[in-house]
Design a protein that fits this description.
Layout (H helix, E strand, L loop, with lengths): L1 H22 L4 E3 H6 L4 H9 L4 E3 L3 E3 L8 H11 L4 E2 L1 H8 L9 E6 L10 E6 L17 H11 L3 H13 L5 H8 L8 H13 L6 H10 L6 E8 L2 E9 L4 E6 L6 H15 L4 E6 H6 L1 H14 L19
Parallel strand pairs: 5-6, 9-10
Antiparallel strand pairs: 1-3, 2-3, 4-5, 7-8, 8-9
């Protein structure tokens, strides 16, 4: 009698562990999680055969018999994708609290080489962009909201949908436009990158008007020498306009605005860049978005180039802590 009671107590303890874990995942667990509570394969199968639990896909088991919705559907998606899967794009934003945006399918990203299975309502894709640091450390496995916002906008069906998503993310305070801008700097190539940059600059607040005058003030507040701006040089094919130059130290900074998205500008800019470089000057590119969201990092590079060109910094360079562009 004592042995029978012990087995019953152990079984009840396992059921309590299952209930506790399931509550943290909106009622769904993976097979591996269930086995981790101490349940055997036979016990799990018995619950399914008795229709007390319900199988969804191949690995997801609901400890009830109802349909999946809300967070349960999100958990189902990442469970089916495997241990390395994370919610991405709009799906990650929904998990973070985004409301008012409909998703046709739950998007899950997995690293290159991971197994991809096809499941109705779930879009599992391999991506080179997924890094371990992108992943939120608690809750439903997902990427951080600022990364999700960038990818959601890049993957949107239309430009209008991309712009709406970015605005909603900022308005609902899931993250800031500045953090989205920093995440966007990691994107090197995408057909919609420049459009997303334009929207992010708008969300930051009139940033498209930011340019050379702002640059000179920001350089001065950091203790850098006064640059010569909009200097004209004569190149092989005519005049060359340089955005910012320190003649004495042979350092040139080119401020890249939204107009650099156009192919003809890219070609002309490259020719200008090369012509100046051939004259033994250091040419640094400063995207307008970078001036807004990562100014300290870019100005540190400029200071390094100036020092290499012979500039001797003052003993104490004033901090840019009060600079509104500093993030």
């Amino acid at each position: 009698m004592h042995k029978q009671m012990t087995r019953d107590e152990a079984r009840r303890a396992r059921r309590r562990r299952v209930r506790r874990e399931a509550q943290t995942q909106d009622g769904v667990l993976s097979r591996r999680q269930l086995y981790g509570t101490g349940l055997s394969r036979w016990e799990v199968g018995a619950e399914l055969r008795a229709e007390r639990w319900r199988l969804h896909g191949r690995q997801t088991i609901a400890v009830h018999t109802g349909d999946l919705a809300g967070d349960a559907m999100l958990w189902h998606a990442v469970i089916e994708a495997g241990a390395r899967g994370v919610l991405d794009g709009v799906s990650a934003l929904v998990a973070a609290g985004l409301t008012g945006f409909t998703i046709p399918a739950v998007r899950v990203s997995v690293p290159r080489g991971a197994r991809v299975v096809k499941i109705a309502g779930i879009d599992i894709r391999q991506t080179r962009r997924l890094r371990p640091s992108d992943r939120v450390g608690a809750g439903i496995p997902r990427v951080w909201p600022w990364i999700a916002a960038v990818r959601g906008a890049l993957w949107a069906r239309t430009d209008r949908e991309a712009a709406t998503l970015l605005a909603m993310v900022v308005q609902q305070r899931l993250t800031t436009a500045e953090r989205i801008g920093l995440a966007l700097l990691d994107v090197r190539r995408d057909r919609r990158r420049r459009f997303v940059e334009m929207i992010v600059l708008d969300l930051i607040g009139g940033a498209q008007s930011l340019g050379e005058l702002d640059f000179a003030g920001m350089a001065r507040r950091r203790g850098l020498p006064q640059p010569d701006r909009q200097v004209v040089r004569r190149g092989r094919d005519g005049r060359i306009y340089l955005d910012v130059i320190w003649e004495a130290f042979a350092v040139v900074v080119e401020i890249d605005g939204i107009h650099h998205a156009f192919a003809q500008n890219l070609v002309n800019d490259a020719l200008r860049h090369n012509a100046v470089t051939l004259r033994n000057a250091t040419v640094l590119r400063l995207p307008l978005l970078g001036l807004r969201v990562a100014s300290d990092a870019f100005f540190a590079q400029i200071a390094e180039a100036l020092v290499a060109g012979g500039w001797i910094p003052p003993d104490v360079i004033r901090s840019a802590g009060s600079d509104p562009q500093n993030v």
